[in-house]
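Here is one chain, start to finish.
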Amino acid sequence: MKTAAVVAEYNPFHSGHKYQLEQTRAAGATHIVAVMSGNFVQRGEAAIYDKYLRASAAVKCGADLVAELPLPWATGTAQTFARGAVGIAKALGGVDMLSFGCENSDLPALEKIADTLYCEEYEAVISSQLSQNKTFASIRQSAVEALCGEDIAKLLEKPNNILAVEYIAAAKNMNCNFEFNAVSRAGDGYNENVYSGSGFASATAVRETIRSNSFNPLLVPEELSALYTQDFSDFSRLDLAVLSKLRTISVQEIALAPDISEGLENRIYSAIREAASVDDLLQKIKTKRYTAARIRRIILSLFLGVRATDSLGTPPYIRILTCNEKGREILSAAKPALPVVGRASQLMGLDGRAGEIFALECKADDIYSLSFAPARECGAYYRTKIF
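Its structure:
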């Protein structure tokens, strides 16, 4: 038995994701656990389909068990996202391999970057550039270039490479004894919103076809085409609710949100007072230094009540969204370091930080249910029983 962990959003699951799972099997994995974002994702948006449908799609197409990455980590920076997911994989116990997709599968180069990100020389170079009017991503790439050379630093221009580096770094920092398996991304790039007609479409392109009622079932595994005819989430339906909530928040409360620094809370507070739509708000806040993706995550966190302290460390529980018989074998062989739960009632019995994170998750799920037309009932997710 050789168990691999993959980190995913599956927003939605498509043929490229199935290919990654197949390549993970080809690398020797007999069992696969996916650590997947819940109803909100890392780009600061609502997932197009709910977490149970997306988890079911994954198990239909090669995963054996799907564990949820809780909200504060799922909607965090790449570093936070990776730390949370790798933390779950380690805490589950019995995971032998960490498999990830990336634009460049040069594993030694990716590991070199991961090692560099936490050395003293890197911190010194970063500190010397923080005063410049650049995004953190560009500052980080410049620092890696200074220490590793231009060719290696260029790997950080691609989003999946960035995540791969963070997965490796997180695993090393947690002393995980994982074998790393890098799967080269095949097909369109992460942000391509129109399918090129060659290879695999991006999740972005698949979402666009669903939202524009031009869904092409050939873009996803055959067994999933019927799933994607269901109603999908459209978070723009809650724009007024977002603005309403944000207009009640003080500067001090904004300062408690994730990824706030350098007085950004004042800029956000002023923009909230002027904006007439969420898109308008985004445009008023973002700059060359503060990217749209970062601002979307902050706006979402403010709306859902996520604070920077919520994502400290790693998740305090492992929530199973679905599994098959092999998934049950993973659970039977595991020696988890955290509570493993499949029903909300089990989580409601937890106290301390685990209870706080789950309560936050429940509130967010209730809000997510309002993004469908017609709106879904409140509390449906709490009553879902997995095993």
